[in-house]
DNA sequence: TTTCTTTACACAATCGGTTGCTTAAATATT
DNA sequence: AATATTTAAGCAACCGATTGTGTAAAGAAA
C-alpha cells in the first residue's frame, strides 16, 4: 500500500503554475479570479482528489462550522430525536455536529465542555446533566462569544439562549385532561431532587389544574422518584395501588413511567382507562405501540433541535444583539389515546 | 461584555518570560523541563484560563484524536447503543467522537465521508446506508492510512476491519429455538433488496435450521419487506394469518417486527405463544416491556461499539500490520421470553 | 583541570488554508 | 493620448501548537 500524502492547495498550485492563494480563491468562486482559471482549478482539484483541511481553515479563520452537542445520553428517544433535528438543520448550512454524552455526570460535563471549547466549536447546544448544579463551566463559551443554547433541561439563572416547552402548561393540560375524563383522585410522579425546574414545573401545572377544579391536593398521591425508570415506576405504582383509596388517574411526566403504570395496573386486574386513566409525557415511540396506547404530551424534540441549531447559525451570521438572549417556547399537545379515553 | 481573545501558549510565555516551546513542553511534562517550571507553567495556564487549541495541534501533528461515526440514524436503539459503546471507549483514551447520520441515503453518506476526511478524523466507524452499493467513497480513508471499521451493516468486498455478529448462526439459533418449542410452520420476514448480507445471512440460518430438522421450506411463509417498520410488519403478518394454513411460529429479524407480529396476532385472537410463537432480534428495550415479552436474539451493540473504537485506537498506536484487517465476531444469545416459551 | 553528559530553555520551521496588500495587464473614461 | 478603473494573480503574514536543532550552564567522570 502506498503512502499517500494529503493533497493540498499547494500541490494544485504547483501543477497549474499558479499561486496557492489563487487556488484558495478559485475554489470559493472569488470574484477576482477568472472563470477559466476557476474551472481549471476545480477540475484539477477533483482529479487530484483534493479535500480541504478544515483544521487549517479553522485555525486561520477561527471558524470551524461545527456545532457541539452536550447531552446526558443519546439513547433516550427524546434526545436522539433532538440530535436528529440539530443535525438536519446543521447539514443545511453545511455545519458538522460533534456529540458528547455526559451520562448525567457533572464532572463529565465539565470535561466535555472543555473539550468542545478546545475543539473551537462554533456553538454549543446543551441539555444539562442531572447532577449539574453549578454552570460556571459554560462561561468559557459566553466569554468568548460562542453561542450557547440550552435545551429542555436548562439552568434557571444563566443568561443565554434557551429552547424549551412550557412545562407548567403541559402539566396543567395533562392533568386537566384527566379531570375532564372524570378522574377524581389523580396521582403524580415527580423527580426527587432536581436542580433544574423541569419536573417542578410539570408538578406545578398538575397542582394548579387540581385546585382550579376544586380537587383537593393529596400528598400521598404524589410520589418522588430517585430515577425516572421503568422499575422505579412499577414500585411507585404498587405503592399507589396499595393505598386505602387508590387513585383513578395518573399523570406521569415520562412515557416509560406511564407504561410501567399501565402494565402494573393490568397485572393487578385494574382496568385501564376505566378504573385508572394514565397520561404520559414525550410521545416516545413505545407509547404508540404498547397496549393500550398511552395518551401523552408531545415533546417536539426535532423542532427543538432545529430551533436550537438555527439560533446558533443565525447568531453567528448576524451582528450580536444583546436582546437576542431569548427563550424560545415550543408548543406541546395533548395526544389522547386509549390509556385515558373514557368518554 | 468584554471581547476576550483565546488564551494561547504565547500569552503564557510572555507572562512568564519563557519561550512558547517551553510552555508547550511543560504542559505535557516533557523531561527536559524542570519541575519548578512545569509547576509554574501549569499554575499560570490555569489562572489564565488556557485551553489548548486542538485545531492547531491537529494541523501541526496531523493527529486529531477524533473518531468519526457514520451511521444511518441515531434514533435506532441498536445504533444509539453502538454510539454509547464507541463513546465510552473513546473517552477512556481521550478521543472525541463526531457523529454523522446518513439517513440511509447514499449521497449523504458520500458527502459525510468527505466531511469526516476533511475534518481529518483519526479513524472512522461506519454502518452502511441501506442505499449504498458502491463503497468507493471510503477509499480516501484506506488510501491515507486512516483506520476504517465497518460495523453491523458491512460491505462484503472491502478489505478493512469489520465488527459483526454471525448473522447466519443467529438466524439458525433463533429458528432452531422455535422448532424446539414445537413449531412446525415457521414464517420469516426478510429485506426485499439488500446490498449487504445481513438479512440474507439470517435467512440462510433460518433455512438451514428448517432443513436440518426435516421441515420443508415453504415460500409463502417467507415475506420480503421494503422497509423494516412496524406497519410493514403488521401488513405482512396479516398476509400470513390469511393463509389457508397459517404459520405457528415466526422468526422476525428485528424486534419492531416481532412486536407488530405479536400484536397483530393478539388482535386476531391468536394466542401467543401457544398458537403462534415469535422470536425477534436485537433485544431492543421494547422487547422487554411489551406483553407478552418478546423472545429475541441479543445484539451486543455496546460491545461492538467498544470493539470498533478499540480497533481504531489500537491501530493508530501500533505499527501497521497488514494481517490486522480482520473480522471481529461477537457472540449473540437466544433470550427466551414469553412470546416463544411453550414448554 | 579537562572533557563528557545532563539539564533547561530558546529559536525557528512547520502544518495548510486564508486574506490584505501589491503588481501588472487589460479595458474604460475623459 | 492620458488617466482611471477593473480584472487577474502573486507575495507573504497569519492562526497556535509542536518539535528538531542549537546553546548555554551545571554536574559527573577522567
UniProtKB/TrEMBL annotation, chains A, B:
Keywords: DNA-binding, Transcription, Transcription regulation. Residues 7-61 form the HTH lacI-type domain. Transmembrane segments: none annotated. SMART domains: HTH_LACI (SM00354). InterPro entries: HTH_LacI, LacI/GalR-like_sensor, Lambda_DNA-bd_dom_sf, Peripla_BP_I. PANTHER family: HTH-TYPE TRANSCRIPTIONAL REGULATOR GALS (PTHR30146:SF109), LACI-RELATED TRANSCRIPTIONAL REPRESSOR (PTHR30146). This is LacI family transcriptional regulator. It comes from Flavobacterium limi.
Amino acid at each position: 500500500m502506498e503512502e499517500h500524502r494529503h493533497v493540498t492547495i499547494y500541490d494544485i498550485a504547483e501543477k497549474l503554475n499558479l499561486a496557492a492563494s489563487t487556488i484558495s480563491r478559485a475554489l470559493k468562486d472569488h470574484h477576482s479570479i477568472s472563470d477559466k482559471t476557476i474551472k481549471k482549478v476545480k477540475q484539477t482539484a477533483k482529479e487530484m482528489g483534493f479535500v480541504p483541511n478544515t483544521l487549517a481553515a479553522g485555525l486561520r479563520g477561527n471558524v470551524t462550522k461545527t456545532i457541539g452537542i452536550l447531552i446526558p445520553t443519546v439513547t433516550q428517544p427524546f434526545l436522539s430525536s433532538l440530535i436528529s433535528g440539530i443535525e438536519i438543520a446543521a447539514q443545511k448550512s453545511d455545519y458538522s455536529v460533534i456529540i458528547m454524552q455526559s451520562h448525567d455526570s457533572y464532572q463529565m460535563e465539565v470535561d466535555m465542555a472543555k473539550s468542545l471549547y478546545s475543539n473551537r466549536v462554533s456553538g454549543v447546544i446543551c441539555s444539562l446533566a442531572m447532577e449539574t448544579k453549578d454552570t460556571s463551566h459554560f462561561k468559557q463559551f459566553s466569554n468568548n462569544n460562542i453561542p450557547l443554547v440550552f435545551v429542555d433541561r436548562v439552568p434557571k439563572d444563566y443568561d443565554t439562549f434557551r429552547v424549551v416547552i412550557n412545562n407548567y402548561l403541559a402539566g396543567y393540560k395533562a392533568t386537566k385532561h384527566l379531570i375532564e375524563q372524570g378522574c377524581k383522585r389523580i396521582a403524580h410522579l415527580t423527580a426527587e431532587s432536581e436542580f433544574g425546574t423541569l419536573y417542578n414545573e410539570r408538578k406545578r401545572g398538575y397542582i394548579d389544574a387540581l385546585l382550579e377544579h376544586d380537587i383537593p391536593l393529596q400528598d400521598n398521591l404524589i410520589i418522588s422518584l430517585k430515577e425516572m425508570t421503568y422499575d422505579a415506576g412499577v414500585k411507585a405504582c404498587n405503592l399507589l395501588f396499595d393505598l386505602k383509596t387508590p387513585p383513578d388517574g395518573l399523570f406521569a411526566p415520562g412515557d416509560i413511567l406511564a407504561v410501567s403504570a399501565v402494565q402494573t395496573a393490568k397485572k393487578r386486574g385494574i382496568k385501564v382507562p376505566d378504573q385508572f386513566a394514565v397520561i404520559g409525557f414525550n410521545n416516545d415511540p413505545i407509547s404508540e405501540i404498547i397496549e393500550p396506547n398511552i395518551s401523552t404530551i408531545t415533546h417536539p424534540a426535532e423542532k427543538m433541535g432545529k430551533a436550537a441549531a438555527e439560533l446558533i447559525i443565525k447568531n453567528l451570521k448576524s451582528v450580536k444583539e444583546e436582546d437576542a438572549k431569548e427563550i424560545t417556547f415550543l408548543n406541546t399537545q395533548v395526544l389522547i389515546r386509549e390509556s385515558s379515553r373514557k368518554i
